[in-house]
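Margin note: ligand = 4'-deoxy-4'-aminopyridoxal-5'-phosphate.
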Amino acid sequence: MKPWEANIRKTVPYVPGEQPDKPRMIKLNTNENPYPPAPGVAESLYTFDAGNLRKYPDPAAGGLVRALAKRYRVKTEQVFAGVGSDDVLAMAFLTFFNSEKPVLFPDITYSFYEVWADVFRIPFEKVPLDERFRIRSRDYARENGGIIFPNPNAPTGEAESLALVEDILKQNRDVIVIVDEAYIDFGGQSALALLQDYDNLLVVQTFSKSRSLAGMRIGYAIGSAELIGYLNDVKYSFNSYTLSQPAIAAGMAALVDESYFKETIHKIVTTRERVKGEFQKLGFASGTSQSNFLFVTHPHIPAKELFEALKEHNIYVRYFDKPRIDNYLRITIGTDEEMDALLYFLRDYISRRDAGM
Ligand code: PMP
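Resulting structure:
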């Protein structure tokens, strides 16, 4: 070991899904939206005055924050915007999880939580989901330094009821509870409805999935003005100018087109339900996904084998070599054509395999 190595912050980083760029690939591995963003987004970029780039952006991303406040019927002081919800969540970990007691999150969940806890030296404990991969609220009725879970959860896609989320809040009035709603627009009930009763609740959402803007990096948090104030103090102690000018403009353009937003979600949800039925016909089991992906397992074909066979055919899905879920595939809902190509391949693969070919 070199002498200076002892002083380095060492951490095991999060591993994002692959971003290969092949001509005819079908990319169903990172829960991106298969449809383009609202037409107004392209318009906002064409008409963007590059001359303005000599100036710093508004550090508060005011235009976007005001538009979000209007859309979600909250005060401007209740909204915080960041560079994707990953940035918002990282800031929230740093701001709100500052206790000696462990932060609680599910054993099967977004794997970035563990990485942030580790890099910020936050103690944490993973709370096992039940055998159907569902959260049990009573498991969160214990001493802790804060709570975070996605709803719907990832990578399972399972959505918990608003009543369950409220149970967790009721049992935890003296810590901050973060509900990560990256997938909420595809199903489930948003905890935003609970904000007026719980000033310790922070709801985090993103433009990456339902608004087709993963490449632009826009996320936000909504909570009590007090919580947002603390979050801003930490953000401004770190990096004042987070969202770029084009990102602020594109986000505002995406937000005004409510009908495009609804139409895109409707298409994805319709495809999801159809494809889920087709997977069942092929013998796969899946839960009740309320997100833009399915989490499936086959009774006799190992998930890892399917993952590799699919990749060989330029179809990318996500496989996690982790306890309890190492026989599952997480498959993002793409266009109908993409999903049909996936099903065609699987039908053929399974029948050949069953025939011993
Ligand atoms: N939360 C969950 C549960 C996710 O799956 C993702 C996507 N990787 C994120 C947050 C972060 O998304 P983004 O930074 O693109 O907003």
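Residues 84-86, 110, 150, 154, 180, 182, 206, 208, 214, 219 surround 4'-deoxy-4'-aminopyridoxal-5'-phosphate (CB under 6 Å).
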